[in-house]
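Comment on both lines for my students:
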Amino acid sequence: MFIFIKHGDNQQFLANINCSVLLLLHYARRKVGLPKTETIDLCDETGTMKLFFLMKTPGDYANKFLTARNTYYVCKVERGAPGTRVESAYKAFVPLLKNPEPELIDALRTQCDLLERSRVKMLRIQEAKKVVPIESSVNLTSKSSGRSDEEGTTRRAPVLKTRADFVSRKDKHR
Protein backbone atom coordinates (compact mmCIF):
# COMPACT_ATOMS: atom_id res chain seq x y z
CA MET A 1 0.00 0.00 0.00
CA PHE A 2 1.37 3.35 -1.04
CA ILE A 3 0.56 7.03 -0.61
CA PHE A 4 1.60 10.09 -2.58
CA ILE A 5 3.53 12.73 -0.68
CA LYS A 6 3.69 16.18 -2.28
CA HIS A 7 6.26 18.83 -1.43
CA GLY A 8 8.18 21.74 -2.93
CA ASP A 9 7.25 22.98 -6.38
CA ASN A 10 4.64 20.32 -7.22
CA GLN A 11 7.09 17.48 -6.59
CA GLN A 12 5.85 14.18 -5.25
CA PHE A 13 7.07 10.74 -4.30
CA LEU A 14 5.55 7.43 -3.31
CA ALA A 15 5.81 6.10 0.21
CA ASN A 16 4.97 2.64 1.49
CA ILE A 17 2.64 2.78 4.50
CA ASN A 18 3.26 -0.84 5.54
CA CYS A 19 5.88 0.39 7.99
CA SER A 20 6.04 2.21 11.29
CA VAL A 21 5.09 5.87 11.48
CA LEU A 22 8.61 6.61 12.71
CA LEU A 23 10.18 5.00 9.65
CA LEU A 24 7.75 6.76 7.30
CA LEU A 25 8.59 10.17 8.80
CA HIS A 26 12.34 9.47 8.57
CA TYR A 27 11.89 8.56 4.92
CA ALA A 28 9.81 11.67 4.17
CA ARG A 29 12.30 13.90 6.02
CA ARG A 30 15.16 12.48 3.96
CA LYS A 31 13.26 12.81 0.66
CA VAL A 32 12.49 16.50 1.22
CA GLY A 33 16.03 17.23 2.44
CA LEU A 34 15.35 18.17 6.06
CA PRO A 35 17.74 17.38 8.93
CA LYS A 36 16.80 14.71 11.47
CA THR A 37 16.25 17.38 14.11
CA GLU A 38 13.33 18.98 12.25
CA THR A 39 9.89 17.97 13.47
CA ILE A 40 7.57 17.12 10.60
CA ASP A 41 4.11 15.71 10.15
CA LEU A 42 1.76 14.85 7.32
CA CYS A 43 -1.57 16.44 6.49
CA ASP A 44 -4.19 15.41 3.97
CA GLU A 45 -5.42 17.58 1.10
CA THR A 46 -7.98 19.31 3.32
CA GLY A 47 -5.26 20.33 5.78
CA THR A 48 -6.07 17.86 8.54
CA MET A 49 -2.88 17.13 10.42
CA LYS A 50 -2.16 13.52 11.35
CA LEU A 51 -0.30 14.62 14.51
CA PHE A 52 2.28 11.85 14.21
CA PHE A 53 4.79 13.97 16.11
CA LEU A 54 2.57 13.65 19.22
CA MET A 55 2.18 9.87 19.04
CA LYS A 56 3.01 7.90 22.18
CA THR A 57 3.72 4.80 20.10
CA PRO A 58 5.48 5.82 16.86
CA GLY A 59 6.12 2.13 16.22
CA ASP A 60 2.48 1.68 15.17
CA TYR A 61 2.00 0.94 11.50
CA ALA A 62 1.23 3.95 9.32
CA ASN A 63 -1.48 2.07 7.42
CA LYS A 64 -3.67 2.34 10.54
CA PHE A 65 -3.74 6.15 10.14
CA LEU A 66 -3.29 6.78 6.41
CA THR A 67 -5.42 5.74 3.45
CA ALA A 68 -3.69 4.02 0.55
CA ARG A 69 -3.50 5.96 -2.73
CA ASN A 70 -4.32 9.28 -1.05
CA THR A 71 -2.16 12.38 -1.31
CA TYR A 72 -0.52 13.93 1.75
CA TYR A 73 1.65 16.99 2.27
CA VAL A 74 4.77 17.26 4.42
CA CYS A 75 4.40 19.97 7.06
CA LYS A 76 7.09 21.38 9.29
CA VAL A 77 6.10 21.85 12.93
CA GLU A 78 7.50 25.15 14.18
CA ARG A 79 7.94 25.49 17.94
CA GLY A 80 9.14 28.31 20.19
CA ALA A 81 12.80 29.27 20.43
CA PRO A 82 14.90 26.83 22.50
CA GLY A 83 15.84 28.06 25.95
CA THR A 84 12.92 30.49 26.19
CA ARG A 85 9.70 30.36 28.18
CA VAL A 86 7.74 29.53 25.02
CA GLU A 87 10.10 26.76 23.98
CA SER A 88 7.39 24.11 23.68
CA ALA A 89 4.75 26.45 22.20
CA TYR A 90 3.29 25.59 18.80
CA LYS A 91 4.03 28.51 16.48
CA ALA A 92 2.92 27.15 13.10
CA PHE A 93 2.38 24.14 10.87
CA VAL A 94 4.09 25.07 7.62
CA PRO A 95 3.34 23.02 4.48
CA LEU A 96 6.52 22.40 2.51
CA LEU A 97 4.90 23.51 -0.75
CA LYS A 98 5.96 26.38 -2.99
CA ASN A 99 2.42 27.75 -3.46
CA PRO A 100 0.04 26.20 -0.91
CA GLU A 101 -3.69 26.83 -1.24
CA PRO A 102 -5.07 29.51 1.12
CA GLU A 103 -7.63 27.01 2.46
CA LEU A 104 -4.81 24.64 3.38
CA ILE A 105 -2.93 27.38 5.23
CA ASP A 106 -6.10 28.43 7.09
CA ALA A 107 -6.86 24.86 8.15
CA LEU A 108 -3.29 24.37 9.40
CA ARG A 109 -3.34 27.69 11.26
CA THR A 110 -6.63 26.78 12.96
CA GLN A 111 -5.30 23.40 14.07
CA CYS A 112 -2.08 24.95 15.35
CA ASP A 113 -4.05 27.52 17.37
CA LEU A 114 -6.28 24.82 18.85
CA LEU A 115 -3.30 22.67 19.77
CA GLU A 116 -1.54 25.62 21.41
CA ARG A 117 -4.65 26.57 23.40
CA SER A 118 -4.97 22.99 24.57
CA ARG A 119 -1.30 22.92 25.60
CA VAL A 120 -1.66 26.17 27.58
CA LYS A 121 -4.84 24.90 29.24
CA MET A 122 -3.07 21.71 30.34
CA LEU A 123 -0.20 23.77 31.76
CA ARG A 124 -2.64 25.89 33.78
CA ILE A 125 -4.34 22.79 35.14
CA GLN A 126 -0.98 21.31 36.16
CA GLU A 127 0.05 24.57 37.84
CA ALA A 128 -3.29 24.78 39.67
CA LYS A 129 -2.78 21.28 41.04
CA LYS A 130 0.60 22.29 42.42
CA VAL A 131 -0.76 25.45 44.11
CA VAL A 132 -3.85 23.99 45.84
CA PRO A 133 -3.06 23.45 49.54
CA ILE A 134 -3.83 20.00 50.83
CA GLU A 135 -5.95 20.02 53.98
CA SER A 136 -5.22 17.57 56.73
CA SER A 137 -7.68 14.71 57.03
CA VAL A 138 -7.81 15.32 60.80
CA ASN A 139 -9.79 18.53 60.30
CA LEU A 140 -12.25 17.10 57.81
CA THR A 141 -15.82 16.47 58.92
CA SER A 142 -16.94 12.89 59.25
CA LYS A 143 -19.70 12.11 56.75
CA SER A 144 -21.69 9.77 58.96
CA SER A 145 -21.90 11.80 62.18
CA GLY A 146 -21.34 15.35 60.99
CA ARG A 147 -18.74 15.85 63.72
CA SER A 148 -15.06 16.41 63.15
CA ASP A 149 -12.47 13.91 64.31
CA GLU A 150 -11.21 16.35 66.92
CA GLU A 151 -14.55 16.38 68.80
CA GLY A 152 -13.92 13.01 70.32
CA THR A 153 -15.37 10.44 67.99
CA THR A 154 -13.30 7.48 68.95
CA ARG A 155 -13.53 4.27 67.08
CA ARG A 156 -12.67 1.00 68.61
CA ALA A 157 -10.58 -1.30 66.56
CA PRO A 158 -12.06 -4.76 66.06
CA VAL A 159 -10.72 -7.36 68.44
CA LEU A 160 -8.49 -9.65 66.49
CA LYS A 161 -7.96 -13.08 67.91
CA THR A 162 -4.84 -14.96 67.18
CA ARG A 163 -4.13 -18.62 67.57
CA ALA A 164 -2.19 -17.83 70.72
CA ASP A 165 -5.36 -16.34 72.27
CA PHE A 166 -7.27 -19.56 71.68
CA VAL A 167 -4.45 -21.76 72.99
CA SER A 168 -4.10 -19.72 76.18
CA ARG A 169 -7.88 -19.92 76.83
CA LYS A 170 -7.86 -23.69 76.50
CA ASP A 171 -5.02 -23.85 78.99
CA LYS A 172 -7.05 -21.76 81.45
CA HIS A 173 -10.04 -24.10 81.28
CA ARG A 174 -8.03 -27.27 81.99
About this structure: The domain at 2-131 is CATH 3.10.20 (Ubiquitin-like (UB roll)). The first strand starts at residue 2 and ends at 7. The chain has a mean pLDDT of 84.
